[in-house]
Amino acid sequence: MDQTNNTISPTTDRAVQPQVEKLPANGQQPVIVVRGLTKSFGEHEVLHSISLHVKKGENLVVLGKSGSGKSVFIKCLVRLEWPDCGTISILGKDLDSLNYQETNDLRIRIGFLFQNAALYDSMTVRENLAFPLRQHKKRMSAKKKEALILEMLDNVGLVDSIDQLPSKLSGGQVKRIGLARTLILQPEVMLYDEPTTGLDTITAKEISELIVKMQKKYHISSIIITHDMICAGITADRIIILRDGIVYAEGSYAQLENSQDEWIRSFFDFSDNINTAQNATGK
Amino acid sequence: MQPFLHRYQTFFHQAGDLTAFMLRFFREVVKPPFEWREIFYQCYLVGYKSTLLIGLTGFIMGAVLTIQTRPSMAGFGAVSLIPGMIAVSVVREIGPMITALICCGKIGSRMGAELGSMRVTEQIDAMEVSAINPFHFLVVTRTVATTLMIPLLTILTDGIALFGGYLAMNIHDVTSLRHFFTAGMAHLDFVDIFPAVIKSFFFGYVIGIIGCYKGYHASRGTESVGIAANSAVVASSLAVFIIDMIAAQITDLL
Q1: Membrane spanning segments where (chain B) (predicted)?
Q2: Is B128 on the interface with A (CB under 8 A)?
Q3: End-to-end CA distance of chain A
Q4: Whether B125 and A114 lie within 8 Å, measured CB to CB
Q5: What is the domain range of residue A99?
Q6: Is the residue at A69 inside a domain?
Q7: Residue B196: is it exposed, middle or buried by C-beta count within 10 angstroms (0-12/13-18/19+)?
Q8: Scanning A115, B50, B78, B209, which has its CA 20 to 30 A from the CA of A151?
């Protein structure tokens, strides 16, 4: 896991906030590059000139309090929200230069796990997983589709739930099925919108470990939006903290945990479980 | 003054938005891939699942119309004209209108609530980010289903209403089913049947598209699902009346 980045000196003053994207020094092309992303709703500016990058195979965790613009940021990456200004490049494609069809072609290569998994509640688990395949893998045989569905369900440990409706599943199971459905198109980039929200500590830890497992198995680059420190501790290679719409701080988990800034440290203070979680994954 | 102006602005904004949504349907409906499976499923939900309600309503409507009309017609000694009167009024106006209004309540509200719920729970967004066109999959299929099924339901309503009229006729008089239908059909002309069928296609289209529009544009929050369902019924019922008025004017010119 990469822990070479330095913590940016935090400041709340937007005028002097550096907001300069630091590309990898080793010349490796990042899979996601965001430059100067700004988004407002009416008079309220939610994101102010956000710049960041994600390297291939890296898990970037975006932390921040509720309302800090984390979800808006991640939705801008898949064009569910349109930024006011700034550029986004994913897998070498500049989103602004893409038409509708090209955007959809890129979306197939990006997985997005919603906060509540957003399973289609009129479909069974099997149909939920089969739906993207039916749309995008028309030439794939029914046998191969079934095998892929079973493989994905096996990944998340829920093969037995294949014929159940989402309403019959627990919160943790719904998240797992949501993850399986997202992974079924074998994306190169995964975006997680608060994957552990609303789950108990144990299930949250299981989901976080599953995210790392899937990342390693399928070599996926991820952005994980969360305010759950257990999830951040388990999944993060690098962490960015948003505050009032700006990148307030950036660094590894250990760097931010030992930050001089009291506000940053306040994220890490309240949970005793983090060290345990970190020890479990060797971070 | 300010809220009044704001309300006007909102109305015109929504009207413009709805028009764009309706036009988008015509662009998307011809685009492949055609979701036949979903269209057939929606046809089943809209058509087959509504037959009992539509049939019962049509039967009662025909019977009540006959029972209520008979005393006046008997006063003029024109009981023999009842089948013709029932046939003309049911086929031209009452059948299509009652079918459309029932479908506004049953189907329009279902579509508003279903799509509203999908919007609130981010299922529509999930389709979008999976590169699946939610408009094509959800709106086009449902609107095609209502456009095709409501004319069929209207024909069913007309038939059952005439049968109800026949049974009600036999309360006081004696007539055969064959005679009742023959007498009824003798008063029907091409200009009675054709515009009624055509307008029921328009009824089906507006019920589907307005129900979908309201659900598709539901705001975030559970309350908006109820609002979407409710406003889908109100707006589509109003649209049905407006189309009926326009159709009546056009038919009058024929």
Answers
A1: 46-67, 73-91, 148-169, 193-213, 225-250
A2: yes
A3: 8
A4: yes
A5: 18-103+190-198+222-283
A6: yes
A7: buried
A8: A115
